[in-house]
Amino acid sequence: MVVGDFANEVDVLVVGGGPGGYVAAIRAAQLGRKVTLVDKGELGGVCLNRGCIPSKALITAAERVQQIKEADRMGIRVNGDIAVDLPELMNWKDGVVKKLTGGVGTLLKGNKVDVIKGEAYFSGPDTVRIATEKDSQTYQFKDCIIATGSRPVELPSLPFDGKRILSSTEILSLQELPKRLLVVGGGYIGLELGTAYRKLGSEVTILEGTDSLLPGVDPSLVRMVTRKLKKLGVTVVTGAMVQGGESSEDEVRVTAQVKGEEKTYAADVVLVAVGRKPNTDELGLEQVGIQLDERGFIKVDKQLRTSVPHIYAIGDVAGGALLAHKASYEGKVAAEVIAGMPSEVDVRAMPFVIFSDPEIAYTGLTEQEAKEKGYDPVVSRFAFQANGRALTMDSADGFAQVVADKESKQILGVQIVGPEASTLISEAVLAIEMGANAEDVSLSVHAHPTLPEAVMEAAEGVLGQAIHMVKK
Amino acid sequence: RRRRVPAAPSTRRLARELGVDITQIKGTGSQGRVTDEDVRRAAAALQE
Ligand SMILES: Cc1cc2nc3c(=O)[nH]c(=O)nc-3n(C[C@H](O)[C@H](O)[C@H](O)COP(=O)(O)OP(=O)(O)OC[C@H]3O[C@@H](n4cnc5c(N)ncnc54)[C@H](O)[C@@H]3O)c2cc1C
């Protein structure tokens, strides 16, 4: 420490106020710790400010437009054009974000968490320097939780310019609808936003390097989405390796190697969504000796401890699934461990949700994974076409599928593609966590007519007893 | 292959709190479910 430097002493220091950090701070405070939380940006992190929430707001608005267009099928005539006022839409979305980030601030205050707006940098194994707008001070902590999250990966051949070559952050705040939108990367972020802009009126092309959209997701689920994209008029180019691009006054041109052929794509803006990388590089972690894995994520154990035992890491920065609910769950575990509880990461069913059209959600094991783990799985699929509620919603594409252990009928995994899959997956998560078997789900009365009946019937199918499906 | 012990999240937490390894417990619940009682019994046995 520099002579004359005054160290503020804090009990638990949380670095980062995203869904990992703010939840960790609140749980630690609930357990009686004095907590200080520092964030250099806005509370709520990526998820609230430039991730989950704004993207879902745009997706909902875009879906509303689509529903108005399709209302004709129900005899609802909408005369005239549907006009989307993008600045006003963005305003509405910003209002939603503000309400939620404000709520996070209120919760932190209500739990007596000290919040500092500033950038943290480790100066030793139990000290950080926090640079605020005014000054820079040293804080000494007993325990620390690193929750600094992640940021978009830049393609060196197609660097972000904030005008035409954009990351997910900027595409969530466009003030003008692009006539032509090019999306580089067919992962969930590119797919969700590409679909939304298509529904708002843009011409959309998605370039994906591998041979399928949503690499890593069960192809039978992806197939339903690919089909709908075609219907919506989204151009999907797989096996497209982007070589580079250049923007001019009035457009951006991107070249890609597509199955051995060089192709050029012109657009008004290009969204580069090829992945995310951890915010570990400007934290001074090397001075503390915190170990990273080969991709730069912080290595943690089951209790979220880093290689320095009184420093924990949670959320995106700790790798694994880069999801908000995973970050929050880990935040609670880390806070509990700090408070002396024997908590550890003990998840049997992490839900994965993609807000595509139709939505995809899955948890637990796929049939393939179940086999690899040595189970003898039985798979039962129930189509939304046979679900009354889905038909009344005019949204019956897709299915719910249950993977169960043949012998015990224990539910091992659930995959859903279809309306409200994002909501439906919660029952599956609880079933797996509780060790429920297919009979438990099928004997639970599901309200009629509702979408969750599809999950119940898929479970009945495991027993060979679905009512609205004939045994093949 | 080691089967997953069927046990609710709260029961798994209880096992951690009482310092017992849930994979070593034979559940007495339906279809071998490990109950809170099973965990407490195993913890008591460890005490002896
Ligand atoms: C477009 C998009 C859509 C998404 N949609 C979903 C979704 O629907 N569902 C879902 O589960 N996930 C979604 N995600 C992912 C989700 O946003 C992240 O998994 C989640 O935000 C991770 O939370 P976190 O707390 O680990 O970190 P972040 O949310 O990244 O927060 C980290 C915080 O740390 C701060 N920080 C960083 N470095 C420092 C420093 N040195 N000093 C002080 N503060 C610092 C940052 O300012 C930031 O506020 C989406 C992401 C994107 C980009």
TrEMBL record, chain A:
<feature type="domain" description="FAD/NAD(P)-binding">
    <location>
        <begin position="11"/>
        <end position="331"/>
    </location>
</feature>
<feature type="binding site">
    <location>
        <position position="208"/>
    </location>
    <ligand>
        <name>NAD(+)</name>
    </ligand>
</feature>
<dbReference type="InterPro" id="IPR036188">
    <property type="entry name" value="FAD/NAD-bd_sf"/>
</dbReference>
<dbReference type="GO" id="GO:0006103">
    <property type="term" value="P:2-oxoglutarate metabolic process"/>
</dbReference>
<dbReference type="GO" id="GO:0004148">
    <property type="term" value="F:dihydrolipoyl dehydrogenase (NADH) activity"/>
</dbReference>
<feature type="binding site">
    <location>
        <position position="56"/>
    </location>
    <ligand>
        <name>FAD</name>
    </ligand>
</feature>
<feature type="binding site">
    <location>
        <begin position="148"/>
        <end position="150"/>
    </location>
    <ligand>
        <name>FAD</name>
    </ligand>
</feature>
<feature type="disulfide bond" description="Redox-active">
    <location>
        <begin position="47"/>
        <end position="52"/>
    </location>
</feature>
<feature type="domain" description="Pyridine nucleotide-disulphide oxidoreductase dimerisation">
    <location>
        <begin position="350"/>
        <end position="459"/>
    </location>
</feature>
<keyword id="KW-0560">Oxidoreductase</keyword>
<dbReference type="InterPro" id="IPR004099">
    <property type="entry name" value="Pyr_nucl-diS_OxRdtase_dimer"/>
</dbReference>
<feature type="binding site">
    <location>
        <begin position="185"/>
        <end position="192"/>
    </location>
    <ligand>
        <name>NAD(+)</name>
    </ligand>
</feature>
<keyword id="KW-0520">NAD</keyword>
<dbReference type="InterPro" id="IPR006258">
    <property type="entry name" value="Lipoamide_DH"/>
</dbReference>
<dbReference type="InterPro" id="IPR023753">
    <property type="entry name" value="FAD/NAD-binding_dom"/>
</dbReference>
<keyword id="KW-0274">FAD</keyword>
<protein>
    <recommendedName>
        <fullName>Dihydrolipoyl dehydrogenase</fullName>
        <ecNumber>1.8.1.4</ecNumber>
    </recommendedName>
</protein>
<feature type="binding site">
    <location>
        <position position="316"/>
    </location>
    <ligand>
        <name>FAD</name>
    </ligand>
</feature>
<dbReference type="Pfam" id="PF02852">
    <property type="entry name" value="Pyr_redox_dim"/>
</dbReference>
<dbReference type="InterPro" id="IPR050151">
    <property type="entry name" value="Class-I_Pyr_Nuc-Dis_Oxidored"/>
</dbReference>
<dbReference type="Pfam" id="PF07992">
    <property type="entry name" value="Pyr_redox_2"/>
</dbReference>
<dbReference type="InterPro" id="IPR016156">
    <property type="entry name" value="FAD/NAD-linked_Rdtase_dimer_sf"/>
</dbReference>
<feature type="active site" description="Proton acceptor">
    <location>
        <position position="448"/>
    </location>
</feature>
<keyword id="KW-1015">Disulfide bond</keyword>
<feature type="binding site">
    <location>
        <position position="275"/>
    </location>
    <ligand>
        <name>NAD(+)</name>
    </ligand>
</feature>
<keyword id="KW-0547">Nucleotide-binding</keyword>
<keyword id="KW-0285">Flavoprotein</keyword>
<comment type="similarity">
    <text>Belongs to the class-I pyridine nucleotide-disulfide oxidoreductase family.</text>
</comment>
<dbReference type="GO" id="GO:0050660">
    <property type="term" value="F:flavin adenine dinucleotide binding"/>
</dbReference>
<keyword id="KW-0676">Redox-active center</keyword>
<dbReference type="InterPro" id="IPR001100">
    <property type="entry name" value="Pyr_nuc-diS_OxRdtase"/>
</dbReference>
<dbReference type="InterPro" id="IPR012999">
    <property type="entry name" value="Pyr_OxRdtase_I_AS"/>
</dbReference>
